[in-house]
Amino acid sequence: MADWLPERLPEDIDAERAFLATCCAPGAGFAASEAVFALAEEDFVHPAHRAVFRALRTLIEAQVEVNSLTLKDALDQDDSLNKVGGYPGLVELLAGEDVERPQVLADLIRRKAKLRRLVHLGAQLVRQAAEEDEPPEVLVDQTAQSLFHLAQGDAKAKGLLPIQTVADDAMERLHERLEGRLSPGVRVGFSRFDELTQGFQPGNLIVLAARPGIGKTALALNWVLRAAQERDGRPGHCGAFFSLEMSHEEVFLRLLAAQSQTNMKDLQSGRATGRLDHVMRSRDELVQMPLFICDQASITVPQIQNMIVKQGSQSNRRVEFVLIDYLQLLSSPENSRGAKQNEAVRIGEISRGLKLMAKDFGIPVVVLSQLNREVEHRTGGRPQLSDLRDSGAIEQDADMVAFIHRKMIPSANEEPDPSAELIVAKHRNGPTAIIQLHFQGEYAMYREMVRETSSYA
């Protein structure tokens, strides 16, 4: 790796020395503790500074008075006293310049450390690409994930917040919603469902599950379509639809059928000539919507994150919600330990990754999921949470779990029953319920029925 690094890396040895001298000075107290816990051992360049920082943090965590003698003892127990030149070296280090606000030095040290990590990450990418260690797609995936984690590092390390700060932030968002400046959530155009959920909330993972052939994708695309439409003077939400099963053309045709109320088979066969003007108007409406479609068959959660970041940097519209069709088809990263484990563990890791993605980006993530075969042998066939396929982690990670329930496929002499139920079986922030739907298969479309919503227990 050294051959690929520049001769000089971003660092400030004097700032490290002054920081340690300040935090170890008599009476440093709370300001020193706050600054120390804002840093990590690897943020320091000099080995002696790392050793003293580790000893300092140990003493603060144990609530032991910090002075040269207690530091000497902590270093001695860690077999690190020789790294600072013994006790005389420690005393000399602590005699450095003392500043009034150690947090200023902590910010400087952290900034230099982050720049060093970027340099190392770039050097690693150059070396791996030059030596062809991995396929380029894997290298891009790994680098994007590392950059994302580096960018999110400070946001994740918030620590304890005073209730006043939390209240101020919450009330500011509440006022924005009351004044119409902030949408309460991503609403999907189903009135009773939107009333129940108040829209899909930022940071939430929503799972929509059903048996194969029931119409998961149709309902998901209905949600995407209506969420992206301008409504009540508000611009539509910018959405990204990841289809791991259908091509982008198939996805578009389904959207077009629903938007134009044209039979899917007529669109696919070219027999919709009598409605061509209406179809073209619907096409013009669709292309004005803030929608993005990806039909990459083998895709990982880090790759999805990378695409969201890239889209946000290339336009003035950030992605506001993500929908993935479907969970069991997502791939594990090449370097994932779950790739060599059983399917339940693999799906559990992916599910957790999706929840973290929703939280890190502050957007709702909707993922479709298959159900296991047990539901087919149950009287009535109504799904329940234990039917989620492959992993109980899906239920655990999800903020909301909804099922589509329709009658089993009829025999050859029976007409299909268009009635369906949208069962909200888990709702972390609200009630559960059963919402009656009507499925129009020719348009790949669901509608809410007039009947009242019933409770789900």
Automatic annotation (TrEMBL):
The keyword DNA-binding applies. Keywords: ATP-binding, DNA replication, DNA-binding, Helicase, Hydrolase, Isomerase, Nucleotide-binding, Primosome. SUPFAM superfamilies: N-terminal domain of DnaB helicase, P-loop containing nucleoside triphosphate hydrolases. It comes from the Bacteria. Its EC number is 5.6.2.3. Transmembrane segments: none annotated. One of its GO terms (molecular function) is helicase activity. Residues 179-453 form the SF4 helicase domain. InterPro entries: DNA_heli_DnaB-like_N_sf, DNA_helicase_DnaB-like_C, DNA_helicase_DnaB-like_N, DNA_helicase_N/primase_C, P-loop_NTPase. Pfam families: DnaB, DnaB_C. It catalyses: ATP + H2O = ADP + phosphate + H(+). The keyword Glycoprotein does not apply. Belongs to the helicase family. DnaB subfamily. PANTHER family: REPLICATIVE DNA HELICASE, REPLICATIVE DNA HELICASE DNAB. This is DNA 5'-3' helicase. It comes from Geothrix edaphica.
